[in-house]
Design goal:
The complex is a heterodimer.
Chain A (H helix, E strand, L loop, with lengths): L6 H17 L2 H9 L7 H9 L18 H13 L6 H15 L2 H13 L4 E4 L15 E3 L2 E10 L6 E6 L6 E6 L5 E5 L9 E14 L5 H37 L1 E2 L2 E2 L4 H29 L5 H27 L10 H13 L4 H20 L6
Parallel strand pairs in A: 1-4
Antiparallel strand pairs in A: 2-3, 3-7, 4-5, 5-7, 6-7, 8-9
Helix pairs in contact in A: 1-4, 4-7, 5-6, 5-7, 7-8, 7-9, 7-10, 8-9, 9-10, 9-11
Chain B lengths: L6 H17 L16 H17 L17 H13 L8 H14 L3 H4 L2 H5 L5 E4 L15 E5 L2 E9 L9 E7 L10 E7 L5 E6 L8 E12 L3 E2 L5 H16 L7 H10 L11 H29 L8 H22 L17 H12 L6 H12 L22
Parallel strand pairs in B: 1-4
Antiparallel strand pairs in B: 2-3, 3-7, 4-5, 5-8, 6-7
The chains are: A alpha+beta, B alpha+beta.
């Protein structure tokens, strides 16, 4: 048993932190914030891609570098901490995972090497309107090799070259691969609560698309892809939550009121202790998720949902209490606190909100308990 | 990261599991009331189980054989504990002695007679209790006023202790006393062990809000003990106290008792508007939030274990586990009452669901947030020792103990 990163993984993570503090200081996210139509920092994306991070979990057979999933999670933690304004989550955790889980050999060989090198950016387009995703409300339609309808919002939809689109078909909901630079695709950037992470509205008018994975099994496949993405996103959330706590701690040590450091008051100490406990809950569940992901364990569906819920809750709590600890200065545009507050909610919504994942978690716990009672072993 | 057993660990787990299955006491022989902690029949079963384990080399697995242990690893001990919990045969009677006090005794006392008590404790033949807290020294654990004065080769102890779990059945206690009131509070304390039958020592049970009486007051009047029963240096007691308290929090933070499985089983057996409570979306949403916390406690205990197996002491982060476990237990048992609606009032073994286990735990849960360090102390520990925030402003730290203001 080992309940931590290995020494090699720790070294990779340290190196990633040094690299990102150099190439992605908060000023980079701020630059994207001030020019929201862009939605990501292209120079930073190139530097990250040069490190081979996009191919961290892609097998060598498909042009990846195969460091492993725990290694990818370690990198995700650092990307989240650095607020890196790049389409990494869409391209690597979602698009690449969709190909790996559901793509044909041809699709994998064609696209994964380009994703691994960062030359190609991919995303997965599933949402269309307010509310949770259910089969009856999918209006985008696939027929005779072409897509029709509008997806909104699509994270990194303006930056991406390709998308995997959830659409209705004669077989039921399916996943379809589409070239976003091709004909019949119209897209424009949309405003979101986190302008450092771009999003778009994409309208298909007979855009050429090919089926990906099993026809009619789009929702099931998307759920599996999102389970895997949930673990990696949990590490981005954890990295951000840890950084938000550090910011609050540092400010509490530096700011004086009533003749004392504000961090010497129990009102602040206990608040930050609560943030710490929440972050530890997220860390424990995220680590278990990383193990389940890297070992293809049957526990993955439960572990992924737990990691998603815990990390979404922890980042939200840490980011809002960071502003509260900073007081008025934390509410200004100039202070970086709001970048974390925005990112916390962005990450907490991108593949479904807590409410949605709590429901999945309860469903899966019920299944697990039923299996245990019918004689299946757990440990 | 690897949450699976290594091949050797899996082999050990399998052998332990089958040994437990073949040797574990049959709890079903007990009636519902007899199954409760501190019932004489329950305690007798625990004693016999501890001796059976000791004979087979499964008691204090990580301790040296010299002291009745098995010379095994911390990981093996943890695996055995997990299997005991799984089989429903884990008891708390010996934990104070074996997890908190005796490790400190072994570390700080070299007296042959003192150490000869250890193997009997490992076999469950003798029970130890902790005599630290006092009426005026709760969270302020260095504020003790019980005095020990050296007279020749003996110490004479006078004072009062309180909240002493199991003192009414304990054979020995570990006690901290003020040995120099002219020194600052943390510097004038010394730890001793004491035979609970020593003349001048009187135990009076306290009835707590749940109606149970496992906590006690202990009065000491002219209690005389030899210097050989001193644990650690004269006036060096704080160090001994801290090491036992850290062990306590690590043990409390590992999460024993009713689990998410139990509350799900309760929900599945409890009718709701339609179907059972298990189908109620509000309950399901609560369950998910509860699960991530209790799962975190389980996983965090593995991390504490990793530190232990590397020979490191459990760190201040184990305070997070204790804080979570006690609060979540209170939340969960209250939720268990709510989902039963009006019926949640019942706590009699005959009528109540699960023989009143949730109600009993509910009435205990306020104590979980107090014993072993209150919520507030846990948060101070996290803030100061983990996050590096300043200590509270102290008016009592660098003055002689006798000059510190105190209430009644």
């Amino acid at each position: 048993m080992n309940f931590d990163y290995t020494d090699e993984q720790k070294a990779l993570k340290d190196q990633a932190r040094r690299f990102l503090s150099d190439v992605s200081p908060p000023g980079v996210a701020r630059r994207v914030l001030e020019a929201p139509a862009v939605g990501f920092d292209e120079a930073l994306w190139k530097r990250i891609a040069e490190q081979g991070w996009c191919g961290a979990a892609i097998p060598e057979a498909y042009g990846g570098f195969e460091f492993g999933y725990v290694e990818l999670c370690a990198l995700a933690e650092e990307l989240g901490r650095a607020l890196a304004p790049v389409p990494f989550a869409s391209s690597v955790y979602q698009f690449a995972e969709a190909l790996l889980q559901a793509g044909s050999e041809t699709q994998k060989h064609e696209l994964l090497p380009l994703i691994a090198s960062g030359e190609l950016i991919g995303t997965v387009a599933f949402s269309e309107g307010p509310g949770v995703l259910v089969a009856q409300r999918i209006a985008v339609r696939y027929r005779n090799g072409a897509l029709t309808g509008t997806k909104l919002p699509v994270t990194d939809g303006a930056a991406a070259d390709r998308a995997i689109v959830l659409a209705q078909s004669d077989d039921g909901p399916g996943l379809f691969l589409v070239d976003l630079t091709g004909e019949g695709v119209a897209r424009h950037s949309v405003d979101t609560i986190d302008p450092t992470r771009g999003a778009a509205s994409i309208t298909f008018r007979g855009a050429a698309a090919e089926s990906l994975g099993m026809p009619g099994k789009g929702l099931e496949q998307l759920a599996r892809i999102h389970d895997r993405a949930a673990v990696m996103l949990a590490f981005e959330q954890l990295g951000g939550a840890d950084r938000a706590l550090e910011m609050a701690r540092d400010y509490a040590l530096e700011r004086y009121a009533f003749g004392r450091q504000i961090g010497s008051y129990q009102a602040i100490k206990h608040k930050l202790a609560d943030v710490f406990v929440n972050n530890e809950v997220a860390r424990a569940n995220a680590y278990f998720g990383a193990w389940a992901l890297s070992s293809n364990a049957p526990e993955l569906p439960v572990a992924a949902a737990a990691a998603r819920v815990a990390a979404s809750a922890a980042y939200w709590f840490a980011s809002k209490e960071n502003i509260q600890t900073h007081g008025g200065i934390g509410f200004t545009w100039e202070a970086d606190c709001h970048l974390f507050y925005r990112r916390a909610r962005h990450l907490g919504l991108v593949i479904g909100a807590q409410r949605d994942w709590k429901r999945r978690l309860a469903d899966r716990l019920e299944t697990q308990l039923a299996d245990e009672l019918s004689g299946g072993s757990r440990e | 990261m690897n949450f699976e057993d290594s091949p050797e660990e899996a082999k050990y787990r399998a052998s332990v599991r089958s040994w437990i299955a073949a040797n574990a006491p049959d709890m079903s022989a007990l009636g519902a009331d007899e199954r409760r902690n501190w019932h004489p029949k329950h305690k007798e079963i625990a004693r016999r189980w501890q001796a059976t384990k000791a004979d087979a080399g499964y008691a204090c697995i990580s301790w040296p054989k010299q002291w009745g242990g098995a010379g095994g690893t911390a990981i093996e001990e943890a695996i055995f504990n997990q299997e005991e919990v799984r089989a429903g045969v884990q008891f708390t009677y010996f934990m104070t002695g074996l997890h908190m006090l005796l490790p400190a005794l072994l570390e700080h006392n070299q007296d042959e007679h003192s150490l000869s008590r250890v193997p009997a404790a490992v076999r469950g033949e003798e029970i130890w209790c902790q005599l630290f807290s006092e009426p005026a020294s709760g969270s302020d654990s260095a504020g003790i006023r019980c005095s020990a004065i050296q007279v020749g080769d003996e110490w004479v102890i006078n004072g009062q202790k309180v909240w002493n779990s199991g003192a009414h059945v304990a054979d020995y206690g570990m006690l901290v006393a003020r040995t120099d009131a002219d020194l600052p509070k943390h510097k004038g304390m010394t730890v001793f062990w004491v035979d609970m039958k020593t003349p001048g020592l009187e135990v009076r049970p306290i009835r707590v809000m749940s109606g149970e009486s496992e906590l006690n007051e202990v009065f000491l009047e002219e209690v005389r003990i030899p210097d050989s029963q001193r644990v650690g240096a004269v006036n060096g007691g704080w160090k001994v106290v801290i090491s036992t308290l850290m062990n306590e929090r690590a043990a409390l933070g590992s999460g024993t008792g009713l689990s998410w499985r139990d509350v799900m089983n309760l929900a599945a057996q409890t009718p709701s508007w339609e179907g059972t409570v298990m189908q109620d979306p509000a309950f399901r949403e609560w369950l998910a939030g509860y699960y991530i916390s209790t799962e975190a406690i389980r996983l965090m205990s593995f991390r504490t274990l990793t530190s232990l197996s590397k020979g490191e002491a459990p760190g201040p982060a184990s305070s997070a586990g204790k804080l979570l476990w006690s609060n979540k237990t209170q939340e969960m048992t209250s939720q268990a009452l709510d989902i039963q609606d009006h019926f949640g009032l019942l706590d009699g073994a005959g009528e109540a669901q699960f023989d009143g286990a949730f109600q009993q735990r509910f009435l205990w849960s306020p104590g979980l947030r107090l014993g072993g360090g209150t919520d507030e102390i846990m948060k101070n520990i996290i803030a100061e020792r983990v996050l590096g925030l300043p200590g509270d402003i102290r008016v009592d730290k660098n003055v002689p103990f006798r000059e510190i203001p105190h209430g009644r």
